[in-house]
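If your schedule permits, I should be very grateful for your opinion on a structural question. I have a record of one protein: its chain in single-letter code and its fold written as discrete structure tokens. Would you kindly read the sequence against the tokens and tell me how you understand this chain to fold? Thank you for your consideration; the sequence and its tokens are set out here.


***
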Amino acid sequence: MAPHLGPRIDISSHWLRLTSAALVATWAATALAEPSLHVEPGPRVLAGEPVHLSVIGAQPGAEVRLTAERWFAGLSVQRPKPRLMRSEAVFTADPQGRVDLRIAQPSQGSYQGADPRGLFWSMLPVAGVERPAADSVDTTEVHFTLHSAGARSETRLQLLPSLPEVRTQPADGLPGAVFAILPGAQKRPAVILLGGSEGGSLITRDAAPLASHGLAVLALPVFSPPDRAGVREIPELPAAWADLPVETLNKARDWLARRPDVDATRIAVHGTSMGALLALLGGVHLPWVSAVVANVPSDVVWDGWGPGVPLGRRSTFSVAGRPLPFVSLVGYEEELQGFERNEPVMLRRAFERGRAARPDLAAQARVPVERIRVPVMVIGAYDDQMWPSGQMAQAIAERRAEAGLATEALLFPDAGHLLYDTGYAPTTGYNAGLRKTGGTPAANARAQAEVWPRTVQFLRRVLAAGDDPAATPLPTGPR
């Protein structure tokens, strides 16, 4: 018996009427809509988290022009006045009237090729704009403007350097040091942050961003050189980097151990540049170190420098009161004379000449990384013009592999020395002056965008940090 189907309905004609009506409604909505730029996940994003930019509602095949502006101060201990930076890119809308910046290649603009961060890192200074006081503008805000077919719209994005809940405070008893932590009931594993040969307090700016990922962070300046006027930012610290005791890290560890909100059995040491060398030496000589991150490191100890310290006379580091064997730079003063001759200064050459001149000393000065029995991450760049961090990071990983020890190595062929950022800050000025740090703007930004999340993931994994507070969506309402 055939099933009862009820009243007969003319499916085809009914569908055609519905489809025609839908098409008319869609056409009318498209005709009335204006193109708009969408920023995901929202108007406020923690710096370093992925940002997706897309244009919708444009006319298919229409030219879409995007500009981005931001006040940016760059990296400096002296906190220079910010300058207005701008980037631009022109696209062609796809058949659906969209431009997805993850896959769309600009036909012209400040960067080439599909790059979701292109509008961020490719910014250049805007000429003729007066530079305001450091605290008078919002350097976290990016202002986008969209132009297409006579329509114009604006969108703003705030790149928060850290979660607003992060608490920061001076680390009493450790000159210039800053401690940052998210409040909570549990004890948090800790990271000691070390800066490079710039010295001073610059490294302390990175405490709160890293603490936003559930880690207790102690940013520890270890020396403070004089500036051009002879002024030292932190006079309680040494003025020269010479015979610095590796045991300096013990003071930081003891300070963390006195805090009830820190688990002192889980402490990593993260260093950048010369600080990376100190972090590796800490992993060799200090039994409490739980993990090491060495960003653009050296695999050998070099000679110390600073006021009253002639090159080639003293080591950069000491252990138990004894200077460590070191390699002397060759032609360092001559390299610096490039500033007077208006020629590019690439300090890398002095390091390479020193190593080539005395391979016997290089063997004695090598950091015995095979003695580090805790997790290690190394990050190097083969176009680093400060020193050959790519080759030295590779040597560290290879030596540990020979000893049967795993190392997480991030090695970048076209990047330079300045890898400690999120990939969303302008990188166009890194080699603008005579002092060259290496890498192309695009390669440096790509490397930074990989280094930051991989470093956070590594530290949280090896320290068993638990849930990531930064994964919680930020409020999207008015600021």
Notes: The chain is about 25% helix and 25% strand.
